[in-house]
Amino acid sequence: MRLTDAQMAEYEERGFLVFPGLVSRDEVEALRHDLLRVAGVEAEGVIREKSGTVRTVFRVHDEESPTASPPFQALATLPRVLDPARQVLGDEPVYVYHTKCNLKDAIDGAIWQWHQDYGYWKTDGVARSDMTTSLLMLDEATEIGGCLYFIPGSHKLGRLDPEMDETTTSYKLWTVPKQQVIDIMTTFGDPVAITGKPGTVVLFHPNLVHGSGHNMSRHSRWHIYTVYNQVSNRPQAIENPRPEWVVARRCDPLETGSDDGILRHAVAAE
Predict the structure, then answer these.
(1) Which end of the chain is more exposed for a tag (fewer CB within 10 A), N or C?
(2) 241 CA to centre of own chain
(3) What is the chain written as a DSSP string?
(4) Residues 28, 106: contact at Cβ < 8 Å?
(5) Distance CA 245, CA 101 (A)
(6) CA distances (Å), 211 to each of 14, 62, 202, in order?
(7) Rounded to an integer, what distance in angstroms lies between the CA atom of residue 85 and that of residue 266?
(8) Domain containing residue 93: CATH number
(9) What's the CA gap between 185 and 161, in Å, rounded?
């Protein structure tokens, strides 16, 4: 799947693209079924809320991971998903930097503070922001359910110096300081809510300022993130690198998989 010139221009201007219904209902169900399995694994890559509820499952794309999932491996190379990601990165060879599955649990799913993803990834030794994230909604994303919010165009600011927030939630996060977020909104306008039905895919720039609110609804929701990086931009050696379940060590270029890969893996698992 190739992006049009208009879509490429929109990505460059706003920092994101939304593709409703890109992943089918059957594919969503196959992914959700296997996610429930890996969410029950006891491993470092399974992060829990203060209540004990699963918050994030990392590294589902890697066959060597305890949280490995063949359907999610297929998702990462699905032509509909991989080709647009590779295109916004200049059609350069890419690999999966990391995958994570975020759960906003009903009623008490916590916030994600305002941040840039590359704010963290640069500290991993990644020299350039030549990366992109593909987000898949496994459940409907609503405003009351704590959907993502983007500040369109904010990626043009480049990487902002972040500050570490270790107390707001159960997961440490490099965040954009409060006054800076207010200034960015004054310049670029109010954030937009990223809502959508299951199967919606969102592609967004790593310097886009974004966050999400508390889930006040009775419905839990899963978002799946596959982060692509140019092979030429793989992390350089640093002291005390984050573990492999967060930052991939294998940087082999991805080859486009088959368009029915998710469903084939789901059938094979039965």
Answers:
(1) C
(2) 20
(3) -PPPHHHHHHHHHHSEEEETT-S-HHHHHHHHHHHHHHTT--STTEEE-TTS-EEEEE-TT-TTSTT--HHHHHHHH-HHHHHHHHHHTTT--EEEEEEEEEEE-TTTPPPEEEE-HHHHHGGGT--S--EEEEEEESS-B-TTTT-EEE-TTGGGG-PPPPEEE-SSSSS-EEE--HHHHHHHHHHH-S-EEE-B-TT-EEEE-TT--EEE----SS--EEEEEEEEEEGGGPPPP-SSPPPTTTS-S--PPP----TTHHHHHHHHH-
(4) no
(5) 12
(6) 16, 27, 14
(7) 24
(8) 2.60.120.620
(9) 17
Domain that holds residue 141: 5-269
pLDDT in tens, 255-268: 999 999 999 987 66
Say how many domains are in the chain.
1
pLDDT tens for the chain, 270 residues: list them. 899 999 999 999 999 999 999 999 999 999 999 999 998 888 888 988 777 778 899 999 999 999 999 999 999 999 999 999 999 999 999 999 999 999 888 887 777 889 999 988 999 999 999 999 999 999 999 999 999 999 999 999 999 988 776 556 555 677 888 899 999 999 999 999 999 999 999 999 999 999 998 889 999 999 999 999 999 999 998 999 999 999 999 999 999 999 999 999 876 655
- Cα–Cα distance between 229 and 234 in angstroms, integer? 7
Q: Are the CB atoms for 133 and 117 separated by under 8 Å?
A: yes
Torsion of CA 69, 70, 75, 78, to 10 degrees: 160
Q: pLDDT, tens digit, for every residue of 61-109?
A: 999 999 999 999 999 999 999 999 999 999 999 999 999 999 888 887 7
Rounded to a whole number of angstroms, the distance between the first and last alpha carbons of the chain is 29
